[in-house]
Amino acid sequence: MCRFLAYRGDPIFLEELVAAPCHSLIHQSLHAVEAKTETNGDGFGIGWYGERPEPGLYRELRPAWSDENLRSICAQVRSHLFFAHVRAATGTATSRANCHPFAQGRFLFMHNGQVGGYAGIRRRIEAMIPDALYATRAGTTDSEAIFLAALANGLADEPVAAMACTLGAVKRHMQETGTDEPLRFTAALTDGEHLWAFRWACDAKPPTLYFRETRDALVVVSEPIDGKRDGWQEVPKGCTLVARRGRGLSLECLNEAMARAA
Amino acid sequence: MCRFLAYRGDPIFLEELVAAPCHSLIHQSLHAVEAKTETNGDGFGIGWYGERPEPGLYRELRPAWSDENLRSICAQVRSHLFFAHVRAATGTATSRANCHPFAQGRFLFMHNGQVGGYAGIRRRIEAMIPDALYATRAGTTDSEAIFLAALANGLADEPVAAMACTLGAVKRHMQETGTDEPLRFTAALTDGEHLWAFRWACDAKPPTLYFRETRDALVVVSEPIDGKRDGWQEVPKGCTLVARRGRGLSLECLNEAMARAA
Amino acid sequence: MCRFLAYRGDPIFLEELVAAPCHSLIHQSLHAVEAKTETNGDGFGIGWYGERPEPGLYRELRPAWSDENLRSICAQVRSHLFFAHVRAATGTATSRANCHPFAQGRFLFMHNGQVGGYAGIRRRIEAMIPDALYATRAGTTDSEAIFLAALANGLADEPVAAMACTLGAVKRHMQETGTDEPLRFTAALTDGEHLWAFRWACDAKPPTLYFRETRDALVVVSEPIDGKRDGWQEVPKGCTLVARRGRGLSLECLNEAMARAA
Amino acid sequence: MCRFLAYRGDPIFLEELVAAPCHSLIHQSLHAVEAKTETNGDGFGIGWYGERPEPGLYRELRPAWSDENLRSICAQVRSHLFFAHVRAATGTATSRANCHPFAQGRFLFMHNGQVGGYAGIRRRIEAMIPDALYATRAGTTDSEAIFLAALANGLADEPVAAMACTLGAVKRHMQETGTDEPLRFTAALTDGEHLWAFRWACDAKPPTLYFRETRDALVVVSEPIDGKRDGWQEVPKGCTLVARRGRGLSLECLNEAMARAA
């Protein structure tokens, strides 16, 4: 289990959310409250959009709490859209390539969850990735594989449908191999403009996901970064929070999308 | 605050204590129980004696819990005398050179504690290190500086007196700069043959220290590695456990040694 | 292109070959002579056999020349059979999981060479790895994939035939995708007892490989560790040097083995 | 010996100098031409000024040539003033804290050179650093120590005089300890506005230093980043290139400044 945050709004320094608040993401790397694991010390990553269509990426295998570079970069970089993630590994190695967020072209993706019995179905999930994208597969995580498979399933055009289709396929692979462990998927996706935040699990126990909308900004988090509940709304289980630029927020049902995709 | 263990006895694979027990040192890197900090993820180190008078050393800035090399080395190396340490930094950077144990010639040293107001008296403590040893000062911790200063004060000949003398001097430096923070010192030292384990604090709150003696071995730990209290004895506050090869264990009073040194 | 060495014989400290000679493997990490790249600074690894059937492994992504741990471990560990490798990456990331040697059960494997057009046929090579082994695929290199595929092709029973079969299959995948780049394969394999050293390329330009046999030991190297040619014999192109315990050295022709496998 | 570059001018993406040119600084990390060492693989660093008075800093102990984060950050960050440095260690460890540039408040400093017999006079140089600054001493290099000592000697007000005074003192310490090795000092300093580039050695063999001035920008380098000599001017031996904002470039004689300081 991991912790993450996504921000879209008026440009701010990353440190305002990543480092400064009492329950900032860096704080959560050592003291998460709502996670299965309190410590998220198996690497971290930030991804942000600046002047280019593709995001910048800084990922490192040290714990976030002791990384001087992270603090310095977050104090310098100002962005209207950024992701940050601290990792608690669930079976795969601690390496930069296994750290979130993952980038592909204009897209950023990060995940908190698990694919039950992943070691046994890893190749089946990877087989969903087309050759051209497979060459960019740099790590070994389920998260990166799902992202690449979803891109092949149309993530750029219909994110919710593409993700539903991908999760449905992963679930079928899990059923075929007979695992008892669940598929749980709380994730965030952006193309540098719009933002999607997913919360779904096959056993109705998806990891927590909150958002806070103000006049200036939307913040999506695993758990509130101010340590309070006021002002934060839960993304309902089974839903995707859709934040298209210039439009109001909306919720889409992932189960329905999965039924359509099946 | 950190966690450590020291072993002397019949040669065993390091993994028997470092990796295997339910509350092994690797487990404590993520879930310490008796420490001020539950997580000890700011690097780690092992030092061991094999066929040579000088110990081997493997120190790394990643957390112990995710280091594949640590597990592999501990599964291969068998030793009659070894130290292992997982670090929770108290103000100095996460780097290999700041990881314990520290080695000098035949000696190994590791520490759990704090020097109150260290940043302000660091140079005074370093001034206690003679030039020849100062060239080997590789990190910035109080622990390494105290070790090098104690070597200059006769650690090789009279370890308890040398350490008492050094701690007394550090305490005076602290008093002169008027810090309110305490000096706490729980540590282990060996020359590859004999073993000393110190537990002292100026405020009578030294970090915990336990030992277990069997027919085959002596184990000294910050907290029991089996998660139980049976079979473990506390090193009394203010005392040094002295384990000279071929002799029974004894306890020496550090305060008396400090009075003699003063 | 990389540099490596393999040793089998009377137990010696690893440092005698890895660190001490004027042209030691650590020296070659910075100043290789017979390689396409003079610098081999993209990580390194050592694997050695001690008291257990499985080898120990220390792999790290820093350059070998500046790694204090490597020097200390090589000064302590004495072994009758060990591998050491310094890496110059050819397209895949610098990470521990991409460092050689690779271990599987009792086996150690390391490689110097290239699979032309690897990015395009990576999945085809990975498809040769059975599910059970695929779960242990930790990195993204061609070398690791070939090793795992060869294990599936009978490496434990008939190493030369299994490797010939695997290389033949890789070559066919390369032909199908129409790459102009060559397949070059200089490698070493051991099960902790016997040793095989391969030197083959589809374009008759396999990387260099030498061996030196004395009464006490066999040493196999990419280039001589003493910087001299005396006493070193070249493994002929297209050949495998076979060093079964208790028997004399022999050379087997890989092309014949490939013809038989086809 | 190391390689570095400094830029001041119209804001550009760091990659335009650090990553893109045929002989970029990243290229020089593997293939320097005018240095004593071709490989500069002992860590690297970039420092840049954005919206804040203090610079951002990204330093890492991996070689620059294989660091994905460096490429991504350099592709995103646009700055009017930045430093970049690739390190070839001369006796001190490879760690982040030993990587250049060093930052203090608004200042950035980086160095290429050597202090002969440094191990023996390290403490004397450190003694030139006042207590308040000494608490920020994070590494063990001569370069960082000289920077901190120069700050104490008035670097903020009279950079050339302060550096001359500091180098003079270092030279005296060297003479007192009787080293035969030289003091060589090629370095760059900025406060986020003005830029100073020093080239001096006690034996008239200071490391190379070039600059190129165009209408839009000033670039200072250890060796030309385009692999050509056209358009580059050498900073004369014994001189400091002074580039105050809004004024023309000037050269100041360091020897004269040292004579005045003595």
Please characterize this protein's 3D structure.
With 262 residues, chain A is of the alpha+beta class. The first copy, chain A, has one domain: Aminohydrolase, N-terminal nucleophile (Ntn) domain (Glutamine Phosphoribosylpyrophosphate, subunit 1, domain 1, 4-Layer Sandwich). Helix content of chain A is 27%, strand content 29%. In chain A, the strands form two sheets. Chain A has a seven-stranded antiparallel β-sheet. In chain A, strands 5-6-7-8-12-13 form a six-stranded antiparallel β-sheet. In chain A, strand 2 (44-48) and strand 3 (56-60) form a beta hairpin. In chain A, helix 6 packs across helix 7 (159-177). Chain A is globular, with a radius of gyration of 17 Å. The model of chain A has no long low-confidence stretch (mean pLDDT 95). Chains A and D meet through strand 3 and helix 3 of A and strand 3 and helix 3 of D. Chains A, B, C, D: This is Class II glutamine amidotransferase. Chains A, B, C, D: Residues 2-262 form the Glutamine amidotransferase type-2 domain. Chains A, B, C, D: Keywords: Glutamine amidotransferase.
SSE diagram, text form:
Four copies of one chain form a homotetramer.
Chain A: E1 3-13, H1 15-18, H2 25-31, E2 44-48, E3 56-60, H3 68-76, E4 78-86, E5 102-104, E6 107-115, H4 118-126, H5 131-134, H6 142-152, H7 159-177, E7 183-190, E8 195-201, E9 210-213, E10 217-221, E11 233-234, E12 239-243, E13 250-253, H8 254-261
Antiparallel strand pairs in A: 1-4, 1-10, 2-3, 2-4, 5-6, 6-7, 7-8, 8-12, 9-10, 9-11, 12-13
